[in-house]
Each structure stands twice: as structure tokens, then as C-alpha cells.
Specification:
The complex is a heterotrimer of chains A (about 100), B (about 700) and C (about 210). Chain A has about 100 residues and is mostly helical. Chain A has 3 helices and no strands. Chain C is mainly α and about 210 residues long. The chains are: A mainly alpha (about 100), B mainly alpha (about 700), C mainly alpha (about 210). The structure holds protoporphyrin IX containing FE and copper (II) ion (CU). The site of protoporphyrin IX containing FE has 26 residues of chain B, from α4, α5, α15 and α17. The site of copper (II) ion has 5 residues of chain B, from α9.
Chain lengths: ~100, ~700, ~210
């Protein structure tokens, strides 16, 4: 790992790894030791998972906001929009049906 | 018990055998269809051997990765399946016309008919027809040499053909599902239909669906990455915009179908409980998943048809499309909205009124961008120099009939009305009313419009007009009465009925069905007559309709590499502008070598293997399933170890071909639009002022 | 030009010439494929959530009876580490560190992938033992539809790594091999991303106190 470019890029991967590690350890710890309960715990897990996904996208998949070429980000956001419609729609409809049975 | 070698395939799987055992009219019709398939296949094989076509067929078609040939093969597949689908439709009309307390088909046979008819019409007529037209036209319109992934394109075709083949085979071996084109469980679960029927549906849909997803990726990447220099997004023909939207739907709406079908497969094969009645299964989620696909699917079908109509109307009115930007926005918003309305297919499932209201309103909203388009087309025609050619006849029929279908759609989007008429023939009338005048007329218009590009000769005008009029009138007689019957409460999917007051309208519908059969016959005759008269109808110079986009700027049929030199695009409707400003048909200063991908058999390998795999899965022949999957995977991986997969067409050859064609163009007389459908038309159009440059807008 | 990116994700960079340019189309196409796959996963997740309740469990075992948080934690660590090692392989490719270095990192990734699969299969065996089988309830059907789907992807990823090792040996680092490695990298990182959702929703969500 001699050339500086390579080294700084490797450091970025390590930084991502460290962040992802932390974002994994915390929720596992919370559940394992029962440090939180109920809704609060669920929300915490969800937030940490989203944070970790963003970390992966940023450090491993190299998606960021700064480039001129934005096709990647647009594609991902568009997918998330459609998937959001479909997944939340599904939960909404099926959840509602379940309460009415 | 299942046999280790033949699985659950045995003598009674043969429909001919069943008819032999029980020679009722219903079984005989089934056996007759099976014999037609077998004899048709044998006759084709014999014919190919007789006229020694195997070599050319293999070399020029089946192993070709040329988007144009793949497109043509898709269309051929679609037209063959259309024949079966229409015959089934008319058969059902006949059954119902005689269906007062009976009829000649058993209820099971009738159910199989509407199931295969629906499945075939959607997945193996409309979809391949669309994929075919897109394949042929889109790369030419954006000035590309081929798709972004030519080999994957061939594989997509192979998988689509597999799906169609499985549905055809189900006529001969076993039977198809009786669960409708949506194949709802639990009725299609193992408890209620243990036979091979639903499995045929599952595997033909899943395999063809994978092909469609790959096609969508291919179309999208081609448009994003392969446009000619200067072909900005906002210079693309509207058809290409519709292709973007359709590919978005192919990419994102096919997954729910794949998920639903594979979950159903898990239920049937492995005793899972996704959708079963017992043990926590939730069949309502199937309905939900299916329509997450199903609704975007209908827009997948109709959006490219809008694109075709946009091209056709603009060309035959001699004008730029009116309101280009609003067309683009309307198309995009239809694509996105189409993901927000799926619940309108199951308003009656039991969810709360609030949810129904939300989806009802969203559904009605789609009418707005659609209305925008209709007005744009009308404005394009307004004060244009309109020629009533065959595609324009279809377009006119589309205007009248599609608006009726759209309005009944807005009615159905109201949950209160839907509660009244769901599951009646009103619905059948509605969706045929949008699908036939919308999708099918659009595709047929495109077929007439681009046929000369693909084959170098026009289709016979007279037979084309007859067919178009027969379609329009036949459609009206067949389906408009069904609105009435639906309002009177006649349920859909019924083999027979008890209320004699339904009868007159059903006879009327049968009469319409006969007209539609005649329309189909006219189309076949037209093809035959046109091939026989191909010398008089020839338009080798490439521009028979005074076209406006790049595909008309090259010979008909185009060379394998499409463009001798990639065009430099300066404007919207670039070829029309080029003709007006005199820069069309210019000879490039230098020609360059062109690298093109080699032919490959991989698509055929995938097609054959996946067909065998599908059959093996349907009949529980496990060894064959594993074997064919293995061969397929090994061939696909093996191919990636090869790197010498393209060849170079030398610049000298391109130059010679191109110069010869240019010389013929220059020598040919330019033809006025009045002579468009005359034998004088050789494909060189006389520029028209003031319409040509879009000045009328 | 060296700073210019032609496609989403880590680019080879201009010094790779035709491989860099050729990557534009194929990598973009592969991103779209991944997004389509993401929709598949998303809907399987949604279906899982609709039956993750007593009704869906139909009186059968629940998550607490069948999941082993410790094993899941180890699997998570393995998969996360494998993302890092694949990242190093990509960097070695980008900075032209030679075939052996790249192959080394790929080999480590492959081993981690196989270790993950082994542990996952052991978990599955345990679930079968306690009766948490798909035939038992809608809930377990959804579980067995979701988690093994991810496992299948990992297995395919492993197969792909093996194929790429063979291609690097036989063909060398020719442009197609490079762009395939780029796409494989995206695939691998994508799988880790799906796993984050799996351990958060299925395992942590299922074992919440
Ligand atoms: C061309 C003449 C056609 C005729 C005569 C025809 C006739 C019919 C009939 C009689 C039915 C059964 C109605 C019932 O449930 O009672 C039906 C269903 C259906 N048709 Fe057609 N049809 C035609 C064209 C098409 C086309 C072009 C498409 C689509 C591209 C199509 C798609 C469907 C679908 C999806 C169903 C529903 C199948 C089901 O119930 O699951 N049809 N058609
Ligand atoms: Cu709909």
C-alpha cells in the first residue's frame, strides 16, 4: 500500500467498517442485555439500521452527493420511492385487513 | 405415486387420450386444439426441411443478436399467439351465446379457456409484441447500433418463448390452470387444484417474467447510454420516452409478480403456508402482490402504444407532435401514478372505506395525464395535412373507443360503483375496451407503420383498411353489449347462465366475435398478398411515409450495423429537419470500421433448457429439472470465459454499401404524399413546405 | 480526467483505459438489476411483516424458540468483515496491485462467505429441530422465504467469486474481467446491505424483549 491515493481510500473503507461495526454492536447489545423495551427499542433498531445502510452506501458502494454524475443517486432514490409505496402500501392494507377480520 | 423417471406424467396426461376415453364435444375440442398444435409443429418442421431453411433460420435468426431480428421474432411470436388467443376468445363467446342452461363446453374447459386466453393475451401477445416493436424501433430512433446488451436481449427472447411454449404444450400434455390469468390462491393451491395446471401458469409466468425484467434493464440502459451524439433526452421521439417509462415498469413491477408466483410455487411444491387457508396463511397478500404487478402492467402495455400513436399521428399529419413537453410529463406521471393505484382491483376485499377512497382518488387522477395526451394528439392532427392510411384508421378507432374505455375506468375507480359491478361482464367490457383499442390497435398501427422499414416493402393498403375497419366494428359489437350485460348482473367467467334476457346481447357479441375473426383473417391475407406483391410494394430507399425520426434516414431493411456513420443530431424530429434544410442524405467524409457482436447459440440453449426445466417442474421430473438447469448455468458461465466474441465490418464495405444506396436515393424521384400508397412510392419522400419543418405549430 | 466518474460506485479510473470506459454501461445496467432485486427483497420483507404476529404463527413456535442471537451476531461480523475484504480487493484492482493481491483478498472474502453459509445452515438445522419449519405456519413460511433467499444470493456470490478467480488465472486482468469484478463487488456489498435489514427486522425485531 505505497501510493497515498490507495492508502487514503483504504482508510475510508476502514472508517466505514468501524462505523458499521458500531452501528451493529449497539443494537445487538441493546437486545442482548435488554437495555431498552418496546416501541423505543424498535425505533432505535430501525434508526440504527437505516444509519448503517447509509454508511454502507457511502463507504462501500461509494454513493455520495458531491458528483456531477447523479444517475446513481437518482436511481436509488427512485427505487426507494417505488419500493416505499409498495411496501408501506402492503403493510397498510394488510394491517388494516387484519384488524377487520 | 410419481415415477422416478416420468414423474407424474402418464398416458392420461395426453389430452388426445382423454378425448379417446370420453369423446364429448368439450374434450374433442381440447383434443382438436392439441392436434392442431402437434400437426402445426410437425408441418412447420417438415416445411423447413423441405425448403432447406434450417441453415438460414439458425444462422440469420435463432442465433442472431441483432436487435432488429430479435424484434421481428418477438412480433412473430406475438402474432402466432394472437391467433390462438382470438380463437379462444371467440370460442368463449360462442359458448356463452349458447350458454343458457348449458352450452357445449364443460365448466372446467371454459375455465381453462379464459385462463389461457387471459394469460396468453397479456403475457404472450401484448408483451412480446411490445418488446418486439421496442426492440426494432428504439435503437434506430436514438441512433444506436444495437441494444446495450445484445446477448442478454437474445436470452430475454428465449425466456419469453419458453413461457409461450409451456402454455402451448399445456394443450397437449396435462391441462392449464383454471384459476384465471391472475391465478388466485387458495383455489390454485395444492388443496383445490393438485394437477399440473397452476404449475404451468407459474413457470411460464416466472420464466417469461425474468426475460421481461432483463428486457427492461436492457431498454433503459440502451436509452441512457447509447444515444447518438446530440440526441439529448429532450430531442428523443416520444416513442422513446414511452419506452423509458415502460422499462421502469418492467424493472420495478415484475418483481412483485415473481415474488407472488414463487411463493405460490412454494405453497404448492413444498407445503409452505404463504397463501393457504390454514396455519396462518394469508391469501389476501397474494391478491395484493399480484396487483402490485398487475396494475403497472396494464400501463406497461398501453404506454408504448401511446408512443406508437404519437409517432403515427405526427407523421401522417405532417406535423411535429403538439406539446412535446407535456407529453413527456404526462407519460412520466402516468408511469409513477401507475404504482399508486393497485388496490382498485380489490376494492371489495374488506379493507376500510378510507383506504378504498384513497386508492379510488389516486386511480381517477390517472385520467388527467391521459386526457392531456388525447388533447395533444388532437391538436397535432388539427390543421395537419392528414392522410388516412391504415395506422391513422386505427388511431381514429382508438380515439373514439379508448375514451369510452377510459370513462368506464373512471367509473370503476369509484369504490361504490365497483362494489356493484365488480366480477361482472361490465369489467370484462372495460378492460377489453382499453386493451384492444389502446394496446392492440396501437401495436397494429405500429406494425403497419414500421413494417416497410423492417422488410423493405409496404403492406397492402386495401386489406389493411379492411382489417382495421373490421377490428373497430367487430370490437364494438363484441364488447359494448357486455357493458349492458354487466349492468344487468351477468357475472364474468360463467360458462352458462339461467336468465334468458341475457341471450340477445350475447348473440350480438358473438356476431362481433365473428367480425373479429374476419379481421384476423384479413390481417393474414394482407400479409400473404403483400409478400406476393413485394416488388410493387417495395420501398428500399427507406422513407415511405415522409418520416420524421432517424429510423427513416437509413435503407429498408437497414444494414446490420444500422447507421453507416452514427448520426449527429441537431434537433427534435431530426430527419424531418434534415430533409427541410437539405442536409439529409449527405455522404460522410470518412467511414470507419464497425465492431459488432458475433452470433451465439446461448439464447437457444437457455430457451430449450428452460422449457425442459419448466416441463420437468410441472410434471415433477426432478432429474430433468436439475439437469436442464445445470446445463443452462454451465453454458452461461462457460460463455463468460470466452473473450473473442465480436467481429469487425471493414470501412470499405460500409462505404460501398452506403454510397450505392445514396446513389439510388439521389436517382429516385421524390414522391408526393398524395402518391404515398401508390406503387410509385419507392421510399424517397418529397419534402413538404410549410409542414415539414414543423412550422405549423 | 482521472477524477471523473463514469458510473455509480467506485470507478476503475482513467488509467484503466477501455476497461474504465466499458464499465460505464455494464455497471449502470448492473445497478438497475440490483434495484430490481431490491424490490424483490423489499416485498418479501413486507410479506414477512404481515405474518409476524400470533395469527401468522398459528400456535407454532415463535422467534424466541428458534433464533440464536449469538450465532446471528457472529454471522453479522463475518459478513461485515467480508465486505471490508472485498473492498480491499477492489482497491487492489483499482490501484493495479497485481493479480495475486486481488486474488488473495477475493480468496479471503470467499472463505468468509462460506463460513457465513456454514453458520447459517447450522442455524437452519436447529430451527428444523425445534419445529420452526415452513410447513408449520405462515410465519415460518415467510421466514424461510426471506432468509434463505439472502443465503442463496450469498451462495451465488461465492460461486461468482470462484468463477472470477478462475477467470483471473486463465484470462488475466483483461477489461471484461475487471468490469466483472466491479459488478461482483457491488453485488457483495449489496448482500451485506440486505443482511443489515435482515438482522434488524427479523432477528433483533423477533427477539426484542
Ligand atoms: C380479440 C378478441 C377477443 C375476444 C373475443 C375476447 C374474449 C374474451 C372473453 C369471452 C373472455 C372471458 C370473459 C369472462 O370472464 O366471462 C375474456 C377474458 C379476458 N381477456 Fe379477452 N378477448 C379478446 C381479446 C383480448 C385481448 C387482446 C386481451 C389482452 C391483450 C384480452 C385479455 C383478456 C383477459 C386478461 C381476460 C380475463 C381472463 C380471466 O378472467 O382471468 N382479451 N376475453
Ligand atoms: Cu388497475
Amino acid at each position: 500500500m505505497s501510493d497515498p491515493d490507495h492508502r487514503s481510500e483504504a482508510r475510508l473503507y476502514l472508517a466505514g467498517f468501524g462505523l458499521a461495526l458500531t452501528l451493529t454492536l449497539v443494537p445487538f447489545g441493546l437486545v442482548h442485555w435488554g437495555l431498552m423495551q418496546g416501541k423505543a427499542l424498535a425505533i432505535t433498531i430501525a434508526v440504527l439500521a437505516v444509519a448503517q445502510i447509509v454508511v454502507h452506501l457511502r463507504f462501500f458502494l461509494h454513493i455520495d452527493l458531491s458528483r456531477q454524475k447523479r444517475e446513481d443517486l437518482q436511481l436509488i432514490l427512485f427505487t426507494v420511492l417505488l419500493l416505499g409505496i409498495m411496501a408501506f402500501g402492503t403493510l397498510w392494507i394488510m394491517g388494516n385487513l387484519a384488524t377487520r377480520m | 405415486m410419481t415415477d422416478p423417471i416420468f414423474g407424474r406424467l402418464d398416458l392420461s396426461s395426453l389430452s388426445v387420450w382423454r378425448a379417446f376415453q370420453d369423446p364429448s364435444l368439450s374434450e374433442l375440442i381440447g383434443a382438436g386444439a392439441a392436434m392442431a398444435v402437434i400437426l402445426g409443429a410437425l408441418a412447420t418442421l417438415a416445411l423447413l426441411t423441405w425448403i432447406r431453411l434450417w441453415g438460414p433460420l439458425w444462422r440469420d435468426w435463432l442465433t442472431s443478436v441483432d436487435h432488429k431480428r430479435i424484434g421481428i421474432m418477438y412480433c412473430a411470436l406475438a402474432l402466432i399467439m394472437l391467433a390462438r388467443g382470438v380463437i379462444e376468445g371467440v370460442l368463449m363467446r360462442t359458448q356463452q351465446a349458447f350458454g343458457l342452461h348449458g352450452g357445449f363446453l364443460t365448466p372446467d374447459h371454459f375455465s381453462e379457456l379464459f385462463s389461457t386466453h387471459g394469460t396468453i393475451m397479456i403475457f404472450f401477445v401484448a408483451m412480446p409484441f411490445i418488446a418486439g416493436v421496442i426492440n426494432y424501433v428504439m435503437p434506430l430512433q436514438i441512433g444506436a447500433r444495437d441494444m446495450a446488451f445484445p446477448v442478454m436481449n437474445q436470452i430475454s427472447l428465449g425466456l419469453t418463448a419458453t413461457g409461450a411454449a409451456l402454455v402451448m404444450i399445456s394443450l397437449v400434455l396435462g391441462e392449464f390452470s383454471t384459476g384465471g390469468w391472475a391465478n388466485y390462491p387458495p383455489y390454485t393451491g395444492a388443496d383445490f387444484q393438485p394437477g399440473p395446471g397452476p404449475d404451468y401458469w407459474i413457470w411460464s409466468i416466472v420464466l417469461a417474467g425474468i426475460g421481461t425484467t432483463l428486457s427492461g434493464i436492457n431498454f433503459a440502459v440502451t436509452i441512457y447510454k447509447e444515444r447518438a451524439p446530440g440526441m439529448h433526452f429532450l430531442r428523443m421521439p416520444i416513442f422513446c420516452w414511452t419506452v423509458i417509462c415502460t422499462s421502469i415498469i418492467m424493472i420495478f413491477a415484475l418483481p412483485p409478480l415473481t415474488v407472488a408466483a414463487l411463493m405460490l410455487a412454494a405453497d404448492r411444491y413444498l407445503d409452505f403456508h404463504f397463501f393457504t387457508n390454514d396455519l396462518g396463511g394469508n391469501m389476501m397478500n397474494y391478491v395484493n402482490l399480484f396487483w402490485l404487478f398487475g396494475h403497472p402492467e396494464v400501463y406497461l402495455l398501453v404506454i408504448p402504444a401511446y408512443g406508437v400513436f404519437s409517432e403515427v399521428i405526427s407523421t401522417y399529419s405532417g406535423k411535429r407532435i403538439y406539446g412535446y413537453m407535456s407529453m413527456v410529463y404526462a407519460t412520466m406521471s402516468i408511469a409513477v401514478l401507475s404504482f399508486c393505484v393497485w388496490l382498485h382491483h380489490f376494492f371489495t376485499m374488506g379493507q376500510s372505506a378510507n383506504i378504498n377512497a384513497a386508492f379510488g382518488i389516486a386511480s381517477m387522477a390517472i385520467a388527467v395525464p391521459t386526457g392531456v395526451k388525447i388533447y395533444n394528439w388532437l391538436a397535432t392532427i388539427f390543421r395537419g395535412r392528414v392522410r388516412m392510411t391504415v395506422p391513422m384508421i386505427y388511431a381514429t378507432g382508438f380515439f373514439y373507443l379508448f375514451v369510452i374505455g377510459g370513462l368506464t375506468g373512471v367509473m370503476l375507480a369509484n369504490p361504490v360503483i365497483s362494489y356493484q359491478v365488480h366480477n361482472t361482464l361490465f369489467l370484462v367490457a372495460h378492460f377489453h375496451n382499453v386493451i384492444i383499442p389502446g394496446v392492440l390497435f396501437g401495436l397494429l398501427a405500429g406494425y403497419h407503420y414500421w413494417f416497410p422499414k423492417a422488410f423493405g416493402f409496404r403492406l397492402h393498403e386495401g386489406w389493411g383498411r379492411a382489417a382495421a375497419l373490421l377490428w373497430i366494428v367487430g370490437f364494438s359489437f363484441t364488447f359494448l353489449p357486455l357493458y349492458w350485460l354487466g349492468l344487468q348482473g351477468m357475472p364474468r367467467r360463467s360458462a352458462s347462465f339461467g336468465d334468458p334476457s341475457f341471450q340477445p346481447m350475447l348473440w350480438l357479441a358473438l356476431f362481433g366475435g365473428m367480425l373479429i375473426l374476419a379481421a384476423l383473417g384479413s390481417l393474414m391475407l394482407q400479409l400473404w398478398v403483400s409478400i406476393r406483391n413485394r416488388v410493387q410494394l417495395a420501398v428500399p430507399l427507406g422513407d415511405p411515409w415522409n418520416g420524421r425520426s432517424l429510423e427513416w434516414s437509413i435503407p429498408s431493411p437497414p444494414p446490420a450495423y444500422n447507421f453507416a456513420l452514427l448520426p449527429q443530431v441537431l434537433d427534435r424530429d431530426d430527419f424531418a429537419e434534415a430533409k427541410a434544410s437539405g442536409r439529409a442524405y449527405a455522404e460522410p467524409a470518412v467511414y470507419e470500421d464497425i465492431e459488432m457482436p458475433d452470433n451465439t447459440a446461448i439464447g437457444m440453449i437457455v430457451c430449450v433448457c428452460s422449457t425442459l426445466m419448466g416441463l420437468a417442474l410441472v410434471f415433477w421430473i426432478w432429474w430433468l429439472a436439475v439437469l436442464s438447469l445445470g446445463v443452462m448455468v454451465v453454458s452461461l458461465i462457460g460463455r463468460t470465459f470466452r473473450t473473442d466474441l465480436s467481429h469487425v465490418i471493414p470501412a470499405a464495405q460500409i462505404a460501398a454499401e452506403h454510397r450505392a444506396w445514396l446513389a439510388r436515393v439521389r436517382a429516385a424521384p421524390a414522391v408526393d404524399r398524395l402518391a404515398e400508397t401508390h406503387d410509385r412510392n419507392r421510399g424517397r419522400a418529397m419534402p413538404e413546405r410549410p409542414f415539414a419543418a414543423g412550422a405549423a405549430e | 480526467m482521472s477524477g471523473s466518474n463514469l458510473h455509480p460506485g467506485l470507478n476503475l479510473g482513467a488509467r484503466h483505459g477501455s476497461a474504465h470506459e466499458g464499465a460505464e454501461t455494464v455497471v449502470f445496467g448492473f445497478w438497475i438489476f440490483l434495484m430490481s432485486d431490491l424490490v424483490i427483497f423489499g416485498l418479501v420483507f413486507a410479506s414477512y411483516l404481515t405474518v409476524a404476529n400470533p395469527l401468522g404463527m398459528a400456535g407454532g413456535p415463535g422467534p424466541a424458540d428458534a433464533f440464536d442471537l449469538r450465532s446471528i451476531f457472529v454471522q453479522t461480523m463475518i459478513l461485515l468483515t467480508s465486505s471490508l475484504t472485498f473492498g480491499f480487493a477492489t482497491l487492489a484492482l483499482r490501484h493495479e496491485k497485481g493479480r495475486t493481491v486481488i486474488a488473495g483478498w477475493l480468496g479471503v472474502t470467499l472463505l468468509l462467505g462460506l463460513a457465513f453459509l456454514t453458520l447459517e445452515l447450522r442455524d437452519f438445522a436447529h430451527m428444523i429441530e425445534v419445529g420452526a419449519v415452513p410447513q408449520r405456519s405462515g410465519f415460518w413460511s415467510a421466514f424461510w422465504g426471506l432468509v434463505p433467499l439472502h443465503g442463496l444470493h450469498v451462495a451465488l456470490g461465492c460461486l461468482w467469486i470462484a468463477v472470477m478467480l478462475a477467470q483471473m488465472a486463465l484470462l488475466g486482468l483483461v477489461p471484461v474481467v475487471k468490469t466483472r469484478l466491479l459488478r461482483l463487488g457491488l453485488f457483495w456489498h449489496f448482500l451485506d446491505l440486505i443482511w443489515v435489514a435482515i438482522f434488524s427486522i427479523v432477528y433483533l425485531g423477533g427477539l426484542m424483549p
